[in-house]
């Protein structure tokens, strides 16, 4: 998104302080200009904190580098452009409870954002691998220091199930909703045996009639999985009013039919049969 010249002027004003996780503008702006600046900072992921001790737009990650790049380029990638809605803590707790995270379990967070899920999963003792497409957020994950591995890249194309020798115990995810089915289907391939995928998804997954959704419902049903609707205001604190559900998809034991990690391991041998 292009930064309007007048907003750029405010953000590059020597009085504007951009430090740590916040941007503070300690001088008066006319209402229309304030609205414009506020809109841009919110788009970028900032939230106005009006408390006397703060009075700044606060971001869920360090913002200096990001703003430096944005101001140099005079544009920025909006958080929303990549479907970024950090999972609020009460939803994270619910996901981790459903996932039954225990110490030393391996967990994949395939679109980890700034670690809203990955951090607390590691806090419960899990060994967590993260993937994140957005450079800034990936850097925040690396700096967090709790992940075994952070892949900066596209989960759909840069990470394949057979990059791992064994599948994960859990995949816990809140993918970008505009391509939720692609992400969730790809994620199934990373599940070990006796494993489980726990995903926040748009409610449409329960009723949309296209092939991808119908097929996913069949996988959930065959696996003995289920959907739990979340309250409508579950994501309100991060500025999103979306109707969401949690999908629980267990793999069952070694004879499971799902295209999980074992299925991918077996697959090359099956193809070899056709090669002779
Ligand atoms: C809805 S947010 C959720 C972030 C994090 N899972 C959480 O719960 O806070 C989706 C995240 O997916 C990232 N993302 C979008 N497309 C991606 C892709 N193809 N591969 C990896 N990450 C992606 C976005 O940058 C964004 O941080």
Automatic annotation (TrEMBL):
InterPro entries: DNA_methylase_N6_adenine_CS (IPR002052), SAM-dependent_MTases_sf (IPR029063). It comes from the Bacteria. This is Methyltransferase. It comes from Microtetraspora malaysiensis.
